[in-house]
Specification:
Elements: E1 7-11, H1 17-29, E2 33-36, H2 44-49, E3 53-57, H3 60-68, E4 73-76, H4 82-93, H5 101-107, E5 115-117, H6 125-135, E6 141-144, E7 148-152, H7 158-194, H8 218-232, E8 236-241, E9 244-253, H9 279-284, E10 299-305, E11 317-324, H10 333-347, E12 353-359, H11 363-371, E13 375-376
Parallel strand pairs: 1-2, 1-3, 3-4, 4-5, 11-12
Antiparallel strand pairs: 6-7, 7-8, 8-9, 9-11, 10-12, 10-13
Length: 378
């Protein structure tokens, strides 16, 4: 498959020399053309003509020019020089150094960059391409399997995801209603046999559908796809089979303060406070219901370790969430999309552990979790 990214233009100082050389070698092996900024004679017009190119620069001033020309760029600042470069950028742009650091980041230090890099150790063509596409508002491809394409949510996916979310909620609610009716019927029959049937007993009491609390609304999804990936670098992704959206799968940062009754794996976007790293995402996204949906069922937690954890505390912990169109159940798609997503979390997101929360009576999801290698904590 041909890369969307075709060319990387370098505009870096000598302190980057060793890391730049290693990155150029990696990109060249992946078929990416590497060019010095000087070779363009500083012509932004020439760079702009190549829509498949991005620029890596250590100059906030050059970055500002690139933004004005509509060119995607990555700011480059060595980790040990972050404060000095930030202070210099703020001074040159007139930003008050005593103001909040987050404000400074957005108003003077590599303003408008697709991403600010402090090193190139984990940077490759796929990494740069994904952030380039996010900066353009386009969905980045996550991975492919034998039958599926997993990519970030696109605007055209949203009506279908909303439908799937509604139907999954309705199916879950109907299943619970049937279980409740069966239980009540059994109790009624027992009472008839005992001769103590109570008049006026409503054995078909109306049950509120989970779909009424469905978080997968168009409003939420449009906001989510425009914020989550650029703030986190990952999130929930669309799953496509033969160019048709059949569900979604992905990850959110694990919230260690979340009580089990507040979340369930079958509810893709739960009513919960995000971790500190993405609290701004929770503030940006719209509320979905007037009354929060609270799961009162017993929740079983599962975990999957990717690395040995006895010698050191855990690093990156993610919560896996997924949803599949009921029409595609029992065909192996759930296993396929989850395995591919877990491989991505291990290899590209560098996750140490992935966790799941599943309702105790959701036997199908519990069986899938165990098939994927998760271990029950309940």
């Amino acid at each position: 498959m041909k890369n969307v990214l075709q060319c990387v233009v370098f505009n870096l100082s000598r302190e980057w020399e060793r890391e730049e050389h290693a990155l150029r070698e990696r990109l060249a092996r992946e078929g990416i053309l590497c060019v010095d900024f000087a070779e363009t004679d500083g012509s932004l017009t020439l760079i702009k003509k190549n829509e498949d190119a991005v620029v890596l620069t250590g100059s906030p001033e050059i970055g500002a020019e690139l933004v004005r020309e509509g060119i995607i760029y990555f700011g480059c600042c060595h980790a040990q020089n972050v404060q000095g470069n930030q202070a210099s950028a703020m001074e040159s742009t007139g930003v008050d150094a005593d103001t909040d650091a987050d404000t400074n980041m957005g108003s003077g230090w590599f303003d408008g960059a697709a991403l600010v890099l402090e090193g190139f150790e984990e940077v490759d063509a796929e990494y740069l391409e994904q952030w380039m596409l996010r900066a353009k508002g386009m969905p980045a491809t996550i991975t492919r399997t034998g039958r599926l394409l997993i990519r970030e949510i696109a605007d055209e996916d949203i009506p279908e995801l909303e439908r799937i979310g509604r139907e999954c909620g309705e199916a879950e609610a109907q299943e619970e209603t049937n279980e409740e009716l069966n239980k009540e019927t059994k109790e009624t029959n027992e009472k008839i046999n005992e001769g103590i049937l109570y008049a006026g007993k409503n054995t078909c009491e109306e049950k509120e559908l989970h779909a009424q609390g469905n978080r997968f609304t168009k409003e939420y999804l449009y906001s989510y796809r425009r914020t989550a990936y650029r703030l986190q670098g990952f999130g929930l992704w669309s799953v496509l089979h033969r160019d048709r959206v059949i569900g979604c799968c992905g990850f959110e940062p694990w919230d260690t303060g979340l009580e089990p009754a507040e979340s369930a794996a079958s509810r893709i976007v739960s009513e919960r406070k995000k971790t500190d790293a993405i609290q701004s995402l929770a503030d940006i996204l719209p509320d979905q219901t007037d009354q929060p949906l609270v799961c009162t069922d017993t929740i079983i937690s599962y975990h999957l370790h990717f690395r040995e954890t006895s010698a050191a505390p855990l690093g990156i912990i993610l919560e896996m969430q997924y949803m599949l169109d009921p029409a595609y159940h029992r065909q192996g798609f759930g296993t396929e999309m989850c395995r591919a997503s877990l491989a991505y979390a291990r290899e590209r997101l560098d996750a140490d552990e992935v966790r799941l929360r599943i309702r105790e009576d959701n036997l199908a999801s519990r069986a899938l979790a165990e098939k994927l290698g998760f271990v029950s904590e309940g």
